[in-house]
Structure formats: C-alpha cells, structure tokens
Design a protein that fits this description.
With about 250 residues, the protein is mainly alpha-helical. It folds into two domains: about 190 residues, Cytochrome Bc1 Complex, Chain D, domain 2; about 35 residues. It is built from ten helices and six strands.
C-alpha cells in the first residue's frame, strides 16, 4: 500500500506537469488577473462580447436573463443591449432564451472553413491567460485568406474582430531573433486601454464558463470549516473508543 501511495504521489508531482507542459502553447502566455466579482468589469466585458463576438460565436448554454441578473442589469437593459436574435416571426427572442445567434454551421464552414465554436466554456477549455494573449495576438498576414493570423493560434480561421479598437499589428523579429508584435496602424484605443478592454472581456468569458464560481468558493469555505470541526470530533471519538486498548 505504501509503495502504491508513493507511486501515485510521484505521478502527481512529475507526470502531470510534464503532460501539461507537453500540451501547452508554443509561445509564452501573458498572465491576466480577472475578478468575476467586479460588476463594472463584467458589464464592460459583456458589452464587448455582444457587440463584437456574438455575431459568430454563440453562448448556447447560458440564458440572457441569467447574465442580466448576475450583472445587475434590468430586463429592459438586457433586451436593448444584448438581444439581437429574432424568432421565426421576426420578433426578438425573450430574455429567458438561450444565447444563440443566426449563423448556421454550414454558413460558418463556408465563410471561415470551420464552424465558429460556442464560447460558453471557452475560458475553462483554453484558460484565461490563453484567451488574453490570443485576443491581443492578431497581426497582418497576407498569406492567409482573411489577411490576418494569430501569434498564439497559427493559421487561425477567423478575422480580427476587434481591429478597430486595437488597430493593426505586424510581426517582426527583435534583436534577439524573437518574434514580436507592434502596432503599425493605431486603433481607437491605446495599448493599455485595449489591454484593459480585453481583460474585461476575458473576465466576462470566465464568468460565462462558471457563473457559480463565486458562490462555489463561498460554500467551499464553510465546507472546509465543517470538515475541520468534524475531524476534531472524529479524533476525540477515536481516542474514547481506543482508550482501554493497549
């Protein structure tokens, strides 16, 4: 048994990091710190998502009404700021609907070569640092069908959705032969402003992937306190049972 435990511990300490490193990206990721309790940041991120991402990427495992409630928005704000999809009668879908768009899988494949993925869980699948680096990593590449590429996702099949905010970047080699991106045509935002905007967008995507994470962490504290108290009681009970056993 001891040898088995030692083997499993060794696998956790050695095997898992190696596997993660092998599956990791080929470029360093920029770290981002998001705060899903920051309601203002979530609202700014939601505005970016619904204005720049929603046309191609759905979030079909989340409802408009849930997002509005969690972000402190009224039903009217949700209807006028988030809902752009219509039903069969041409009317806007109701706030209780799932967040979908009008793009079909066939049209997505025809336009981009692949169906645009749903973004509900993308923050959990890719990670927040990956998203932050990816959304800041688009650059001009005339060899690509849409004229852009991405330093994190080579040969990406999507355009740069936020080019008017960031501007256009080009890739070049620095003095050490390392690929770097630099803005050659400024957008409406400065570099720091765009970085903050992307942090807000990643914050919203992080919330979208796990809307219960704040509540889960709060409940987790109480669970740990309960287990600590239970451990103390179990230890005292064990001593009482075994006090006469020599």
């Amino acid at each position: 048994m001891k040898s088995l435990i030692a083997f499993l511990a060794l696998a956790v300490m050695v095997g898992v990091p190696v596997a993660l490193q092998a599956a990791g990206p080929s470029v360093p990721l920029d770290a981002v710190k998001v705060d899903v309790t920051n309601e203002a940041s979530l609202q700014r991120g939601a505005r970016l998502y619904f204005n720049y991402c929603m046309g191609c990427h759905s979030a079909q495992y989340m409802r408009y009404s849930r997002v509005g409630r969690d972000l402190g928005l009224t039903e009217n704000q949700v209807i006028h700021s988030m809902i752009f999809t219509t039903d069969e009668d041409g009317e806007l879908v109701n706030p209780g609907s799932l967040i979908t768009n009008a793009m079909t899988a066939d049209y997505g494949e025809e336009a981009f070569g692949v169906e645009p993925p749903d973004l509900t869980l993308v923050a959990r699948v890719r990670g927040e640092d990956w998203l932050y680096t990816f959304l800041r990593g688009f650059y001009r590449d005339n060899s690509r069908p849409l004229g852009v590429n991405n330093i994190v996702f080579d040969n990406v099949g999507m355009p740069h959705p936020l080019w008017e905010l960031q501007g256009w970047q080009e890739k070049h080699l620095d003095a050490n032969g390392v690929s770097r991106l630099r803005v050659v045509e400024p957008g409406r935002m400065s570099g720091p402003e765009y970085d903050r905007a992307i942090r807000d967008l990643v914050t919203f995507l992080s919330y979208l992937a796990e809307p219960m994470q704040v509540e889960r962490q709060r409940i987790g504290v109480y669970v740990m306190l309960f287990l600590i108290v239970f451990l103390g009681l179990a230890y005292l009970l064990k001593k009482e049972y075994w006090k006469d056993v020599h």
